[in-house]
Write a structure and sequence with these properties.
globular, about 45% helix, alpha/beta, about 10% strand, Glutaredoxin, about 240 residues
């Protein structure tokens, strides 16, 4: 069974949704036969690599609210994150461009380290308040995941794996992805947003039964209502 996951490393619901999926897989009796593939999706391709603004100031400008209102808005997301064991640090979070992070993840995939790097990038951004647009930070994360630092430097100092990133984004557009996280199971069930663990588990079971002749095959369909997502224009804070 194949699960494709479109996400961005600055999308809070992508991390929360990832945890919901992992929880579902822990309770899925055929989890050893499931392959998870992370797909690239840039929420803001034109974002600068460096900024002196806080996350609250950025959100304040983007949504036309006060800094105090932006902070209150993120408090709700932080509370959601805590329910899945994640301690988001919006106070120190460093917003940046994520293209290089996605290129690094694609390189990691070529070395069989994509899952480790995906988790480390999300953790670095949301919990450790690291600058994931900075090459030194990316090199450190890659080495911690078991990648060769010299290979990583070559990738980051070139445009290597950008084509793979663009390919993921093109596929997302073709299948109608409008926000992330977005999950597709065996090209059969689409799950949009950080939906409950039960939604993922039910979809996994349905696909398994259909693929193994236990129920009729069905076309690609949504496995639940729209969950919390981030798009190019907004996040469901």
């Amino acid at each position: 069974m194949k699960i494709e996951v479109w996400s961005d490393y600055v999308c809070p619901f992508c991390y929360i949704g990832k945890r919901h999926l992992e929880s579902a897989l822990e309770n899925f009796s055929h989890r050893d036969e499931v392959e998870v593939k992370f797909k690239s999706y840039e929420l803001d391709p034109h974002a600068s690599h460096n900024t002196n603004e806080s996350m609250y100031e950025i959100l304040s400008k983007k949504y036309g609210m006060s800094v105090e209102e932006a902070k209150k808005m993120t408090d709700g997301v932080a509370a959601q994150a805590k329910t899945v064991g994640l301690d988001f640090d919006f106070d120190q979070m460093i917003r940046t461009n994520t293209l290089d992070a996605h290129r690094l993840a694609k390189f990691a995939e070529s070395k069989g380290k994509d899952k480790e790097v995906a988790e480390d990038l999300l953790k670095a951004y949301f919990i450790e308040a690291k600058h994931i647009g900075d090459h030194t930070t990316l090199e450190e994360l890659a080495v911690n995941a078991g990648l060769d630092v010299n290979d990583v430097k070559k990738v980051l100092n070139s445009n290597a794996f950008e084509e793979e990133v663009r390919s993921d984004e093109a596929k997302a557009k073709n299948i109608g992805v409008q926000g992330v996280p977005f999950f597709v199971i065996n090209d059969k069930y689409a799950i949009s947003g950080a939906q409950p663990t039960e939604t993922f588990l039910n979809a996994l079971q349905k696909v398994w039964e259909e693929e193994n002749g236990e129920s009729p095959l069905k076309p690609l369909t949504s496995a639940g209502d729209q969950g919390a997502t981030c798009t190019d224009d907004r996040c469901d804070y």
